[in-house]
């Protein structure tokens, strides 16, 4: 079944100055003249909890990290809205294009509405999220176009980022005991059973599993450990993490400029966009009050606006 990906989390805003002064009652952040309050946060949290989550390892998220990521997302969205107006981006046009894409993804309007109903997401909440996603995409494309790198820029970036320019093809299994992990690792080192562990995904307790990644970079948060990039090709290593043992086998490693150039371009644009947003945050005098976030671990999320409630 097709999934709706309405929330796209922004890059971390930890690098942006956080206000030392006390926020106003209910205030969580300020972006220029815009104030982000508790109701805004509760609405996004409600929508987030209705979205399909990834299964398997790492599916549970720390409540403190979740709160900060949701607030970062709200701040990022406010910055994008402000800058889109300044740049003259046609909000209506980009939204209508994104809406057409969403309808096509589900076949027709009825298919889209059926999916929303099954997720208990109101059309209004989805429209608002889709509008912001369209703005964010248009904003990133605008900034990328303005900062298109030359061949010399890309080559220089490649030379200055030796870790980032490596891409791996890997396979990974995870099991609950070190003994099982070491058995799998030894088998893989000997070139045996390299494709026989997909059945581990059938474990209902999510403590065993198997997956493969192609052209994965060191910044990818799906990596169990960055130490994977120190492995030689056709080797397997065990990485313990949070009570589970991960076995990672490196199938292939590549860093030839011509082969990784598209990936390097993506990293260059990502870094360029981050620098642009850092400057924008200072220009807008962004202030974030993480200490004012509610305690999500205790379920204290009293929401005043049920924007995602099914009618």
Question: What do you see in this structure?
Answer:
With 311 residues, this protein is of the alpha+beta class. Helices cover 44% and strands 14% of the residues. The protein contains 8 helices and 7 strands, in the order E-E-H-H-H-H-H-H-E-H-E-E-E-H-E. It has helices at residues 38-50, 63-87, 91-105, 109-119, 123-146, 151-160, 178-189, 257-283, and strands at 27-31, 34-37, 167-175, 209-216, 236-241, 244-254, 287-288. The strands form 2 sheets. The protein has a 4-stranded antiparallel beta sheet, covered by helices on one side. Strand 1 and strand 2 form a beta hairpin. Helix 1 crosses helix 2 (63-87), helix 2 (63-87) crosses helix 5 and helix 3 crosses helix 5 (123-146). The longest helix is centred in the C-terminal third of the chain and has 27 residues, at 257-283. The two termini are 23 Å apart. 25% of the residues are buried. Mean pLDDT is 83; it is low at 1-20 and 300-311.
Highlighted features:
311 residues; four-stranded antiparallel sheet; three-stranded antiparallel sheet; 8 helices; 44% helix; globular; disordered N terminus; disordered C terminus
Percent helix: 40-55%
Averaging pLDDT over every residue, what do you get? 83
Spatial strand sequence of the major β-sheet: 4-3-6-5
Distance between the termini: 23 Å
Sum up the overall morphology in one term.
globular
What percent of residues are in strands? 5-15%
Instruction: Let me know the largest β-sheet.
Output: 4 strands, antiparallel
Gyration radius, in Å: 22 Å
The H/E string reads EEHHHHHHEHEEEHE
């Amino acid at each position: 079944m097709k999934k709706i990906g309405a929330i796209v989390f922004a890059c971390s805003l930890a690098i942006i100055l956080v206000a030392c002064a006390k926020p106003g009652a209910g205030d969580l952040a300020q972006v220029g003249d815009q104030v982000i309050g508790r109701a805004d946060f509760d609405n996004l949290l409600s929508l987030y909890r209705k979205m399909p989550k990834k299964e398997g390892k790492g599916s549970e998220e720390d409540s403190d990290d979740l709160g900060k990521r949701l607030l970062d997302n709200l701040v990022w969205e406010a910055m994008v809205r402000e800058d889109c107006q300044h740049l003259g981006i046609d909000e209506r046009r980009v939204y209508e294009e994104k809406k057409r894409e969403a309808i096509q993804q589900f076949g027709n309007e009825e298919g889209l509405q059926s999916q929303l109903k099954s997720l208990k997401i109101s059309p209004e909440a989805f429209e608002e999220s889709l509008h912001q996603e369209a703005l964010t995409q248009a904003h990133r494309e605008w900034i990328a176009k303005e900062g298109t790198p030359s061949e010399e820029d890309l080559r220089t970036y490649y030379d200055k980022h030796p870790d980032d320019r490596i891409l791996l093809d890997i396979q990974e299994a995870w099991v609950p005991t070190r003994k099982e992990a070491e058995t799998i690792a030894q088998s893989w080192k000997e070139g045996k059973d390299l494709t026989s562990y997909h059945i581990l995904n059938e474990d209902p307790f999510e403590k065993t599993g198997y997956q493969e990644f192609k052209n994965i970079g060191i910044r990818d948060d799906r990596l169990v450990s960055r130490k994977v990039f120190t492995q030689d090709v056709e080797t397997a290593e065990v990485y313990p993490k949070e009570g589970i043992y991960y076995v990672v086998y490196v199938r292939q490693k590549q860093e030839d400029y011509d082969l990784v150039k598209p990936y390097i371009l993506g990293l260059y644009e990502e870094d360029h966009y981050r620098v642009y947003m850092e400057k924008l945050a200072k220009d807008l005098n962004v202030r974030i009050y993480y200490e004012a976030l509610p305690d999500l671990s205790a379920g204290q999320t009293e929401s005043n606006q049920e924007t995602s409630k099914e009618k």
